[in-house]
Amino acid sequence: MASSEEDGTNGGASEAGEEREATGKRRRLGWVATAWLTFYNIAMTAGWLVLAIAMARFYMEKGTHKGLYKSIQKTLKFFQTFAVLEIVHCLIGIVPTSVLVAGVQVSSRIFMVWLITHSIKPIQNEESVVLFLVAWTVTEITRYSFYTFSLLDHLPYFIKWARYNFFIILYPVGVAGELLTIYAALPYVKKTGMFSIRLPNKYNVSFDYYYFLLITMASYIPLFPQLYFHMLRQRRRVLHGEVIVEKDD
Ligand SMILES: CCCCCCCCCCCCC/C=C/C(=O)SCCNC(=O)CCNC(=O)[C@H](O)C(C)(C)COP(=O)(O)OP(=O)(O)OC[C@H]1O[C@@H](n2cnc3c(N)ncnc32)[C@H](O)[C@@H]1OP(=O)(O)O
């Protein structure tokens, strides 16, 4: 049966409970951490909104996705790299997310931005790049506005609903875009031998970026379900009020 929260009616008792919980959380967090997180989340929401508007404008003006990545790359690199702070937030304990979960999420994005899309120019116009860019952008606008409004104690229900429902589709779409982009990069990486270290050399080490990419793609198989099921547990906890015990902390 749908809870009162889920159907949007949100009873007075649960509202009062949420209010108390939010105030308690803020008190536990301290004003410096609350102020910083509020600033951080507002900045990130704005950054991803700018990106969304730039992508929409580009597509409306040019009518093609070709050249889209090049036109938005600076903003994307800046805000996605800024997300490294999410790992720091977990490490210093100002957000309750597991370092492991945030680490896998953020590092895979940084990897996609810097070591794939930025470094391998011939793949920048692939449709798959648009796929993950759109999935990331919608997700991040929703996620950071969710955190911002939660911290300000004025969380509209539709943002909460969007935060814990959009990912059901956007996560697989984003991951498909990422995997297809890495796949498209493989021939170029093999041909150029980029980022690879060949023997003999004075350190006697070798590294093949092509095989590294194959291993990275394979690592999505065990890692992505962990993130997806983590989000499904968060969804049950927040939208259905279930008490969840996380094992990965
Ligand atoms: C070197 C190469 C490495 C390669 C590795 C390859 C393998 C990779 C495999 C997986 C690849 C994934 C790629 C990703 C693709 C995409 O993103 S596609 C687009 C769709 N994506 C999503 O939907 C992303 C979903 N992910 C997330 O939301 C997070 O990143 C998360 C870390 C996975 C989950 O977040 P979590 O914090 O656990 O959940 P929440 O419910 O949002 O928050 C929990 C509590 O924490 C508070 N909180 C968190 N952050 C903040 C913040 N910035 N400010 C304030 N508060 C925050 C939040 O309010 C919650 O509080 P409580 O309700 O009190 O618990």
Automatic annotation (TrEMBL):
It comes from the Eukaryota. GO terms for molecular function: very-long-chain (3R)-3-hydroxyacyl-CoA dehydratase activity. It is a multi-pass membrane protein. Its EC number is 4.2.1.134. It catalyses: a very-long-chain (3R)-3-hydroxyacyl-CoA = a very-long-chain (2E)-enoyl-CoA + H2O; (3R)-hydroxyhexadecanoyl-CoA = (2E)-hexadecenoyl-CoA + H2O. It is found in: Endoplasmic reticulum membrane; Membrane. Residues 1-21 are annotated as: Disordered. It holds the Pfam family PTPLA. Keywords: Endoplasmic reticulum, Fatty acid biosynthesis, Fatty acid metabolism, Lipid biosynthesis, Lipid metabolism, Lyase, Membrane, Transmembrane, Transmembrane helix. GO terms for biological process: fatty acid elongation; sphingolipid biosynthetic process; very long-chain fatty acid biosynthetic process. It is an enzyme of class 4 (lyase). Pathway: Lipid metabolism; fatty acid biosynthesis. The chain crosses the membrane at residues 39-60, 81-104, 164-189, 209-229. Signal peptide: none annotated. One of its GO terms (cellular component) is endoplasmic reticulum membrane. PANTHER family: VERY-LONG-CHAIN (3R)-3-HYDROXYACYL-COA DEHYDRATASE, VERY-LONG-CHAIN (3R)-3-HYDROXYACYL-COA DEHYDRATASE 1. Catalyzes the third of the four reactions of the long-chain fatty acids elongation cycle. This endoplasmic reticulum-bound enzymatic process, allows the addition of two carbons to the chain of long- and very long-chain fatty acids/VLCFAs per cycle. This enzyme catalyzes the dehydration of the 3-hydroxyacyl-CoA intermediate into trans-2,3-enoyl-CoA, within each cycle of fatty acid elongation. Thereby, it participates to the production of VLCFAs of different chain lengths that are involved in multiple biological processes as precursors of membrane lipids and lipid mediators. This is Very-long-chain (3R)-3-hydroxyacyl-CoA dehydratase. It comes from Rousettus aegyptiacus (Egyptian fruit bat).
